[in-house]
């Protein structure tokens, strides 16, 4: 989905190298990193839209807590926790994201797209193999 975005595709490490802030950023991934960076950028004056898939928000698993988190975060943060993204493409000096909206297809343009998804847990040196914890396929402890 992110092919062809070139320098407009960002990862969380890129944010800390910025000398100037972009005007707008689409954040894909409402996990812990996406929520933290999305809220920080918003409070620094960047227009942010946070896109998720399947509705999980942060580490929350309880549906009632997910709904409440979406409600509370949605007061300030433009959040789509269960977006159906139809397309992402480079458009000149930015990117366009097309998704389904309340009235059909909606296309929004952003200066960049922050992919805050798929980070691998850095647990290699914790010695989890020496514990009784069960681990998931990425090596992190299960809940």
CATH topology: FAD/NAD(P)-binding domain
Structural class category: alpha/beta
Strand proportion, as a percent range, falls in: 25-35%
Instruction: Output the CATH homologous superfamily.
Output: FAD/NAD(P)-binding domain
**Measured distance between first and last alpha carbons:** 30 Å
Helix content: 10-25%
How many discrete domains? 1
Anisotropy-based shape: globular
Q: What's the structural blueprint in terms of helices and strands?
A:
Elements: E1 9-10, H1 12-15, E2 24-28, H2 32-43, E3 47-51, H3 63-73, E4 78-80, E5 85-91, E6 94-101, E7 104-110, E8 112-115
Parallel strand pairs: 1-8, 2-3, 2-8, 3-4
Antiparallel strand pairs: 5-6, 6-7
In short:
The protein has 143 residues and is an alpha/beta fold. The chain has a single domain (6-130), classed as 3-Layer(bba) Sandwich (FAD/NAD(P)-binding domain), CATH 3.50.50.60.
């Amino acid at each position: 989905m992110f092919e062809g975005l070139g320098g407009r595709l960002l990862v969380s490490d890129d944010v800390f190298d910025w000398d100037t802030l972009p005007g707008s950023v689409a954040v894909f991934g409402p996990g812990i990193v996406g929520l933290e960076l999305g809220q920080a950028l918003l409070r620094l004056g960047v227009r942010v839209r946070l896109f998720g898939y399947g509705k999980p928000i942060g580490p929350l698993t309880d549906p009632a807590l997910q709904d409440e988190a979406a409600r509370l975060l949605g007061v300030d943060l433009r959040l789509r926790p269960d977006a159906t993204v139809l397309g992402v493409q480079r458009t000149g000096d930015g990117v366009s994201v097309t998704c389904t909206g309340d009235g059909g297809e909606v296309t929004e343009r952003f200066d960049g797209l922050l992919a805050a998804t798929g980070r691998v847990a850095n647990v290699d040196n914790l010695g989890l193999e020496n514990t009784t914890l069960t681990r998931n396929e990425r090596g992190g402890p299960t809940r």
